[in-house]
Design goal:
The protein is 40% helix and 25% strand. The chain has 294 residues and is of the alpha+beta class. The two termini are 41 Å apart.
Amino acid sequence: MKAETYARYVGLQNILAEKMFKTVHGVETNARNVFDEVGKNMESPEAVIDALKSKTSLAPDVRGYFAAFEPHYFKEKGTWFEPYVHHTDSSEFMLTMVGSARHDYTKSDWYVRAKKSKHAFWSDPYYYYDGTSISGHYCTFVEPIFDDSGQLACVCGADITFDWLTKQLQRIDDQYKGCDLLNKYRMKRKLDFFSVVIKEDGSSIIYPENKKIMVKDQEMLQNIAQKKSGTIDMIIDGEPSTLYYGPIEGIDWTLAVVAPKCEIQKPLLLVGIGLLLVALMGIIVVEIIIRRAQ
């Protein structure tokens, strides 16, 4: 029963992590289409803006696309040229020029990292605020773009909001809470779980409302850093729970399935009660036999 329970929840964790990977990978694929278009049209600032606009309709879930150029790449644009084509409160996209002395993107972690690493990656979560509807919690898929001479021209990015990621994770959870295969032979268990996405420092970055957790166990933190899977018991909202965790492929995040221990242990409790009843019946039968024998 322990093996069956472990396999059920580890299998669930693997499925949810794969689904989350596919959700994120879909954003990457669409973003690369936009970035490729920018790379092919860097003869003028106007061509770059048109390239950003041309592919935005392919990914309505992306909040916005930007191209942050090296200082003076276009001499007429000076030090900062960062066109940002993004959603407003409607489904329409609009253009904003966000590079400035106040927003010196060349000093941002994602820009410096892209310049050094020369490959695509997902940025750490961050909060952007400029007093407009663009403000919010974001994560950005970043890729450096190089010109024909091999020099860095710009760093492109595709922004997704944590509100959107949270809704995607909730949709995936709800889908598998009702899955016939996962609910088969559940032995009075309610498949009562929720999942959270955790980054290397142990903080949860995507989670259901009021379900934010913080991991402090050093062994689990080490496993997260090494992209290993595992389980750990924790008290969450006053309830003993078990976390089944493992990495999400292609991104430096870990997905954990959180389930109450009382639900996980129900099959063991039922088996224990059954064995106890059998034992009591055996004692009664033996007692009857002994008395008759006397």
